[in-house]
Amino acid sequence: MKAVVFKGPYDVSVDEVPDPTIQTPLDAIIRITSANICGSDLHPYEGRVDFETGMVLGHENMGVVEEVGAGVERIKVGDRVSVPFNLACGTCRNCTDGFTSACLRANPSGQPGAGYGYPAMGPYWGGQAELLRVPWADFNLLELPQGTEHELDFTMLSDIFPTGYHGTELAKVAPGKTVAIFGAGPVGLMAAHSAILRGASQVFVVDHQPDRLALAEKFGASPVNAAEVDVVEAIMDGTDGFGVDSGVEAVGYQAHDPSGQEHPSLVLDNLVSVVRATGAIGVVGVYNPEDPDAATDSAKEGRVAFDFGTAFTKGISIGTGQCPVKRYNRELRDLIIRDVAHPGSIVSHELPLTDAVQGYDQFDKRVDGWTKVVLHPAA
Question: Closest Cα partner for 61 from 79, 42, 78, 86?
Fold first, then answer.
C-alpha cells in the first residue's frame, strides 16, 4: 500500500509499504477514505519529539471495513467507521472507567495510553495510508451512516472535534457561561464550536493568524488578534472587567508570541489572568515530559513555570489530559447527522495521499489559508 512515512525532521515521503494484516482475532483492517494532518503531527515533523524512522503517520482516520478477525462480532465488512485516535483495549481499569485515553494494556511500553502513528503511543502504524489495522475493533470503532455524506464532518470525529469538546468539558462550559479559548488552530476552533453548541453566551478566541480568526468568527465567536491588542485587556474589557467563567488552552508547549518567540507559560499565564475567581480552565494543548528544543531550561525538562500562585488564590480549577474520544464521539456524530454541528467547515484543503508532502510543508509553515488538510488515499 501507499503510506506517508516519517524519515526525519521535515522529511516525510509517500512510499510503498507492506499492507497491514489481521494479527489477532479482534483486529479489523480499514480501507481509509479520509485521514487528516493534525497539528500534533507537526511535533515529530519539526523534530520536537523523538519518533521512529520508518513509522507511518496519521491518527485522524476514517474509512470502510475491509476485513475482520474471527473474534469480531459487532463490526462487519463494509461498515463505514470512524477510528478514535485513542487505541484502547476496552477491559482495563481505565477503559472501564471511561478513560480510553489512558488504556493500561494497549501500549507495550507500559505508558498509559496508545494511539496510531504518534511518538510514545506504541508500535501502531498510522492511517495516512491506504489501509489501517485496528486492534480491538468491536470496542474502538464507531459506526457511521453508509455512503459519503458528511465525509469532512465525520473525519473530525477521530480527534479534533471530541478534543475541542473535551476542552470545554474540562473548563465546565455550560449554558450562559463566558469562555476564552487560546489558539485558533483546528482544536481551538472545535472548542469554540463546542462551546457555542453547549450554550455559552460569549466566546472569545485568541490567535494572531487572521485566516484562523476569520473561521472562529464564522462559528459565532469573538476573535481577539494577539498581534493587534493586549489580549488580557481585550477580554477583561469585553466582560465588563469580570473575566470569563471558562478558559480553554488549545496551544500547548510551543506557545509563542506574534513574532515567533516561544514562551512556554504565555497561554497559561493569560488564562489565569482572564478566568474569574472559582472559574475553570481546560488544557488540551499538548505538553510533553521533555522538550530538548524548548525556550527555557525548565521547559526542556517538561517544567512550565506559570502563575500558579494566582490560580490557587483565585480557586481556579484546572483539568488536563488527552481526550477519551469514545466518551463523546457517538453524540457528536449524531449532532452532525442532525445538521446541528458542522466541524468539517474548517477544512481548507483536500489532497490525494500522493500530495501529503506538500500538505505537511504548507500546514507547518502556517501558509495563509492552510487551516486544515484532509488526505484522501483513493483520490
Answer: 86
Q: Does residue 199 sit in the same domain as residue 285?
A: yes
Cα–Cα distance between 372 and 43 in angstroms, integer? 16
Give the number of domains in the chain.
2
Residue 60, domain extent: 2-159+325-376
User: Which amino acid, residue 310?
Assistant: T
Q: 273-303, pLDDT tens digit by residue?
A: 999 999 999 999 999 888 888 888 998 998 9
Domain shared by 21 and 105, yes or no: yes
Do 255 and 338 fall into the same domain? no
Could you tell me the pTM of the whole model? 0.96
Distances, alpha carbon 278 to alpha carbons 84, 186, 245, 248, in Å: 33, 28, 8, 15
pLDDT digits (tens, 9 = 90+) for 303-343: 999 999 999 999 999 999 999 999 999 999 999 999 999 99
pLDDT number for residue 379: 83
The dihedral through the CA atoms of 338, 327, 202, 175 has a sign that is positive
CB 115 within 8 A of CB 85: yes
The DSSP H or E segment spanning 31 is strand 28-37
CATH number, position 287:
3.40.50.720
Phi, psi of 33, deg, nearest 5? -105, -30
